[in-house]
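thought: fold this chain, then report.
action: predict
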Amino acid sequence: MRPPWLLLVAGLLAGALAGCAGTLSAESTPDDPEEGGLIGGPGAAPETDAPPAPEAAPDTDAPSPPDDPPDAPPDPPDGPEAGVPCEIEQILTPRCGTCHGADLRFGAPVRLDDLATLRAPSLSDPGRPLHAVVVDRMDHATRPMPPPPNDRVPADELAAFRAWSQAGAPAGAACGDEPEPPPPVDPTPPPPSLDCEYDVELKAHGGFFAEDEAPFHVPLQTDHYECFYFRPPWNTDVHGLSFSPIVDDDRVIHHWLLYVQEGAGFGDGDHDACVGRHDNAELVAGWAPGGSDNVLPDDVGLHLPSNQTHLFILEVHYNNQAGHQDAFDRSGVRVCATSDRRPNTAGMHWLGTENLLMVRAGRHDRAGTCRPRLNGPVNILSSTPHMHRRGVHLKTDIVRAGGGRDTLIDAPFDFENQVLHDTLATVYPGDSLETTCTFEHEGGLIGFGPGTNDEMCYNFVVAWPYGALSTGGSLTNAENACLR
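observation:
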C-alpha cells in the first residue's frame, strides 16, 4: 500500500514559482536588539545508503499519526539516490530554495533541501524536528513562509507536506532532473526611459568617509542594524523617480530602509549601529527580499530635500545567525532623481497611533484616526505597515464623508518581513483614515518607543500632493505625520 503522503502529492505539478524571500524566521533566536525600522540555487539531495525496507504490514484502520512523530520510519531501498522525495522537493525548491538552498541567503540559517537537516532538531524548538516546524511556518496565519510578497503555499501542497512530515519525513527517490530554480531576486537598474539627472548609489561601506568603497564587515549577530549617512549631491529640492535595491552579500542582508533627515548630526560617509529612532526624518523607500524596484508613476515624483539641510540615512538590517566570518557587504540602493520636477509631488505620510500602552497578556487592538484638512483630492499610491515584534496585523479604512468605508489595506504583519503594498486610492475632503494595529502581547507594561521591546503602530503611505495628509501629532516630530 502506498504511504498516504505520497497519495496526496501524486497529483501536484512541479513548477518554478516565486522563491522564498527572507529567512525561516521560526529558526531565528534574536537577542531583542534595538529596533532598526520596517519598512524584504538549491543543491541536489545528498546521497545516502538506505537500510533494507521492513516487511510490509497488512492494511489496518488506524488513527491519524501525530503531528510530530518521535522517530522517522526506516527509509525505503531506493538506492544511493534516496533523500528528499521528488514530490516534496518540488514543493520546497520553487518556494523556499532561493533562501534555504545549498547557498544560504538573506539570513537563512538552515537548508531545506537536505533530508538529514530536515530530520534534525529545529534550532528554535530543539524538541521537534525541523520538518515539523516548517509545516507550522507554511500554515502560520501572520508569519507564513515563504513571506509576503510571495504567495502562500497552496492548500494541496501544504496538505502533502504535512502528511509527509507526520509520516516521519521518509526518504524517497530524488527528482531525476534538477528542479527548475526559483526566479532570481537580484535587482535590475532603473528603466532606461527614466531621465536620471542624478544616478546615485548609496551603499554600505567599512570606512568613515565619502566615496569609501571598502565593504562593511558584518558582525556575527542574529540581528544587527547599521546606519550609513550620505549627503545628497543636489543643492535644491528634487524629485525621486525610482529606488532600486543593490544586493551584495545576500547571505546576511535582511532588509534596508532609506530616510532623509534634517540635521542628522553625522558627516558624509559616517556610519554607526542604529537604535531605530530617527527624529525629524522622512521615510523614502525600503526593500526586503522579494521586493523589486520602486518606480514612481510617470507624472509623479517623490519629494527629496536639498543637501543644504538634509542627509540620507541608509539603515541596513543584517542577520548573520549562520556565522559567516567572511561576510563583507556593499548592499544599498540606487536612487534616480531629477531637478526637472514632474507635475505632481508625492511624499511619505504617517498614519496610525502612538497611544500604545498595554499591560495584560493577550490580543490588543490600538487605533488612530487621521483627519486631514483637504481642499481637494489626495491620491494614495502605496502603504507600508510598521509595528514591532508583537504586531500581527494592520488595517486602514477610508471613512467616507457621506457614509461608508473603503478598505485601503487589510494585511497580516511580520516584523521580520516588512513590505510595501500597492494601495491605489483617492481621499476626498471630509474623509478620514482610520488605522488599527493588532498586537499579541505576552504581558507586562509596554508602550510606544523605538526599541524592538517597545511598540509602534504606523502605516507609511506614499501620497500626493506632498504634505496634504499632514496634521502632526507625532511624539517623534515626524514630518508629514497625520496622527490626529
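thought: worth noting. The two ends are 65 Å apart (CA to CA).
final: C-alpha cells above.
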